[in-house]
Each structure stands twice: as C-alpha cells, then as structure tokens.
Specification:
With 371 residues, the protein is α+β, with helices and mostly antiparallel strands. The chain is 70% helix and 9% strand. A hairpin with a 2-residue loop joins strand 4 and strand 5. The longest helix has 35 residues.
Amino acid sequence: KGVAIGIVTSVCVLPSILLQFDKYIDKFHHKVLLPDLTGLAQFTLNHRKGFIILFLLMFIPAFYAQQNAPVYYNLDRSLPRDMPSIVASNKLKSDYNMSTIHFIILKDELSTARVRKMTEEIENLEGIESVVAYNKYINAVPDFFVPQEIRDIFKKDGYQLIMVTSAYETATDKVAKQIDHINKIVKAYDPDATVTGEAVLSKDLINVADEDFKVTGYISIFTFSLVVAILFKSVSIPVIIGLSIELAIFINQGIQYFTGNAIPFIAPIVISCVQLGATCDYANLMISRFQEEIQNGHDRITAVKIAAKTSYSSIITSSMVLFCATFGVAMVSKIEIISSICLLLARGALISSAIIIFILPSILETCEPLI
C-alpha cells in the first residue's frame, strides 16, 4: 500500500510541487556534496574481471550461510529483560524450574483410572516437572463434595483440563519432541483430545512459517522477474539483476551465520522483500542508463562508464537515506525484534549499494552481448 501511494504522489503531486517552488529551489541551490565519481566508475571497469571472479566465489558460501543462519521463534526473547512479565517469568524458571506449560483438554467421560494412568505416563517423560489433573488429587472423593468453583477450573461443558509443566523452553527441539510424545500418549486414551499451550502454538508456527516463507519467497522472485522482463523487454536482464540482488541478500543474512547471532524468524522474509525492492531500484536505474548509452551508439565499456558515473550519486543517496532511517531505529528500540530487523535493513542498504556499484557494472560489460 505504501509503495502504491508513493508512486501516485511521486507522479502526480511531486511535479506540481517542483514547479510551484522552482524559484525557491534555485534560490537555495548549493554545490553537490558528493565528489565526482568518475574515478570510481573507472576503477570498477579497470578491475571488472576481478569483480566477476569475486561475484562467482562469494555466491555459494553466501547462499550456504544464509540457509544456515540461526533464527529463533520464541518472541519472549525479543522483549526487554526488565519488563515486569519477563522478570516474573524468569523468576518462575529459576525458583520452580518451570519454563513451559502444556494444556491437555480431553473428554470428561474418561474414567478416573484411565486419566490417572495417562498422567503417570506423561510424568515419566523426560523434562516433565509436574502434572496437575483433577482426578489425580480428587481420588475417591465424589464430585458433589468438591466446591463448584474448584470443579469449574478443571471440568466444564463435558471437558476436563490437565496442566503439564515442562522444564524445556518454548521453540526448542527438546520441547518439540516432548510435545510429540505427549500427543501420542494423549491420543491413545482420547483420540479427540487436544494438546495446546505456548510451546505447542510455537511448534505449529515454526511448521507453518517455514512453508509460507518458501512459497512467498518463490512468488516474490517470480513476480520481480516478470515485471523486470516486461519493463526491459529482455529475458537475460531479470537473471542478471536477480543474481546480483540475491547475492546482496545472501551476504546480509549470512553474516548472522558467521557471527552466531540468532535473529527473529520473521526477519528473513521481511529483509528479502524490502532489500529486493530497494536493490531493484538501484539496478534498474543503472541498467536503464546503460541501455540508453548503447542506443546512443557508445561501445559497451563507454556505456557502462557513463551509466555508472551518472547513477552512482542517486544510488548512494538512496541507500544512505534507507541506512540512516533504519539504523537510528535499531539503535533506539529496546524491542529486539524491531532492532534486529532495522539493523538488517540498514546493513542490507549498504551491501546492496556496494554490489550494484562494484559488481553490476562488471556483469553488464561482460554480459552485454547476451543482453
């Protein structure tokens, strides 16, 4: 929505504002702060073979690092440690060795003997601290002797509740295996029973998110390639731009693999989409200028040099704006999920601009006959 509104305002509103305030723009005009970047363009072309080799050498390690970068799904981890709820949760973990609670909801018609047997099996599982069940504590006492408010906690509307305390943290491999074992035991006694709780929800989230992110990743790459192919009337240009952008994304996310710092699970898909869009703008600008110079009759080396020289200022300006906007939030925010995403976006802006400035011109010069 933001992109669509931005296009409308840039196309319809901005030209009118520029015309209206033209005299003030001239009045406060100053020299360009960025230096002449002709030397940088010449340096890139002089070392184009080296940059092509660097591009090829970096791709596989960057892809591997990106695929294996650590992520976490426990959103509690992203909250400030001094929040009252986090302080209380940590105290429960330290004082009572309680990390996660699973809730089992099953039919009330299950006999006391079978419920007791089921709870014993669950208690024997590794990592289980305690099991709280109505039939475990109210043994031979008839229901009418137990106060209604106590019964309502554990039994209501034909169902009963069992609470299982686990020593394992949410969104870990240990708790995922534990949940599978609990499910197997519970379903053996009541096929319609439900196991839920924070850890169970997180386990479902991991399964759904992994599949969704793969699908959305494929869709974003396909639609990006389709739009660029239509725009440039070329099949090769989407491949060239796509590989350059993907390298920048791989490097950005792959840094987490080498540093060992886990990022929230939502970050990779956000970074991929935003960095894909931002870097596409940089690349489209340079390729458009390159094609114009080729059509003007220049050879490919001259065309790349002119395209690079005239595009670098816009690319550096755009990337620095994105960097400053996101880096500031990353430094200020106390919520780790926000600071992580903003820090990745800031770093991605710099990496993307570096890839477009140094590597894309080399690829364009080399692949011009194919284009």
